[in-house]
């Protein structure tokens, strides 16, 4: 297999896949001596544990990644907390859960009250947008391990066990509705930074400083998606478009493929990364969201009703594609 631009930048997806498989294989051997509570959801964005009375506890964890390098270079820490919340709550809603709370973990060489206060402002803004609490967390001063700063969250939500969205109900012909991203979100920054390395962060060729564009917070999709789930619409699948781009649709449980024949507009920053980094278009779509941060899969007959609701939040939302009978395939028309 030819080495791609992302791997040359230092991120090997095949190695990550093999590493996760090795880790999960060991975790699957955990024996608590009690019946397992985990609902089988292979490949999903969040895990669900069975509680009494038909309720489920949804759990997930994620971080901000090397977007933090951009924040450090700019000395601006007040937005990445939003990203930390977003990356977690956007995963929780993919299983149909209502996010309730998140805990944060901050690793630093040494505690700086000014930096931590700025992180806190971002976390607060993200939590308010998502409608979640942050009742606690952990600060680790680990200068022997980290030179910069790492920020990670773990979120919890609730979902009725009979209302979990897995994607298993998706059928060929179902409509894929795309919700616009706010930019790169929090994925692919290792490749983006390498591609844009020759540009100053105050470069204004995209209409505003490049650093501001790269720090644009990840969009939080909680409120519109929860409204959609509460509406009389047959929601069959939900996908947070993160690393792997639109191939995230393959994480849904149905034995279908996907045709994206009318994608959302691609923000100019992606074109700049492609051009300066000499990244093939196919790889761009495998690494970045390319302007589509979230997908809602609904029955074809409910497409109009779903769009009417979602466009109250995102006027640019539209049908971007459909499910097909070609299992395991994602094609762009």
Q: What structural keywords apply?
A:
six-stranded mixed β-sheet; five-stranded mixed β-sheet; 2 domains; single chain; 11 helices; 333 residues; Phosphoribosyl-aminoimidazole Synthetase, Chain A, domain 2; 60s Ribosomal Protein L30, Chain: A; alpha+beta; globular; 31% helix
Structure description:
- There is one protein chain.
- The protein has a 6-stranded mixed sheet, with helices on one face. A 5-stranded mixed sheet has the order 1-2-5-3-4.
- It has 2 domains: 37-163, PurM-like, N-terminal domain (60s Ribosomal Protein L30, Chain: A); 175-332, Phosphoribosyl-aminoimidazole Synthetase, Chain A, domain 2.
- α4 packs parallel to α5 and α6 (189-195) packs across α9 (268-277).
- It has helices at residues 5-8, 13-27, 67-74, 80-92, 113-130, 189-195, 210-214, 222-230, 268-277, 281-287, 303-310, and strands at 47-50, 55-63, 98-108, 133-141, 150-160, 175-180, 235-240, 257-260, 292-298, 318-324, 330-332.
- The longest helix has 18 residues, at 113-130.
- The model has no long low-confidence stretch (mean pLDDT 96).
- The chain is built from 11 helices and 11 strands.
- With 333 residues, it is of the alpha+beta class.
- A hairpin with a 4-residue loop joins β1 (47-50) and β2 (55-63).
- The radius of gyration is 20 Å and the shape is globular.
- 31% of the residues lie in helices and 23% in strands.
Can you summarize this structure?
The chain is of the alpha+beta class. It has 2 domains: 37-163, 60s Ribosomal Protein L30, Chain: A (2-Layer Sandwich), CATH 3.30.1330; 175-332, PurM-like C-terminal domain (Phosphoribosyl-aminoimidazole Synthetase, Chain A, domain 2).
